[in-house]
Design a protein that fits this description.
With 109 residues, this protein is of the alpha/beta class. It has one domain. Helix content is 12%, strand content 27%. The chain is built from 1 helix and 5 strands. A hairpin with a 4-residue loop joins strand 1 and strand 2. It is globular and about 40 Å long. The termini are far apart.
């Protein structure tokens, strides 16, 4: 089993940085992966065009680790797949990557 080294916060920071670069090139993989350091980060949005609200899949193509965010705002101009488009017909194929979950809050003592 592979040990994940990056925190949820590190992944969210990388996601926010990528979002600031949008609309940009949808095939851009720049930005170091918080886990393995490869320049292989990918971002895909699925949602409702009218509302620009949806889901974000953000992962590294090199180590296949990443995060998934739901009910997030899709930046204006960013590519977005419709939730109504069948998965097999979507232009971006999101791999079966290892999801990193939010950090557990400290237990109250």
């Amino acid at each position: 089993m592979r040990v994940l080294t990056a925190s949820w916060a590190a992944w969210v920071s990388a996601f926010e940085l990528r979002c600031k670069q949008l609309p940009g090139d949808p095939d851009d993989t720049s930005g170091a992966c918080p886990d393995c350091g490869a320049e292989a980060l990918r971002l895909s949005f699925s949602g409702l065009e009218r509302d620009r609200v949806g889901y974000a899949s953000f992962w590294c193509d090199a180590c296949l680790v990443g995060i998934h965010l739901s009910r997030c705002l899709v930046p204006e101009g960013a590519s977005m797949e419709s939730l109504h488009t069948p998965v097999e017909e979507r232009s971006v194929r999101v791999p079966d990557y290892t999801l990193l979950w939010p950090d557990e809050p400290p237990a109250d003592e």
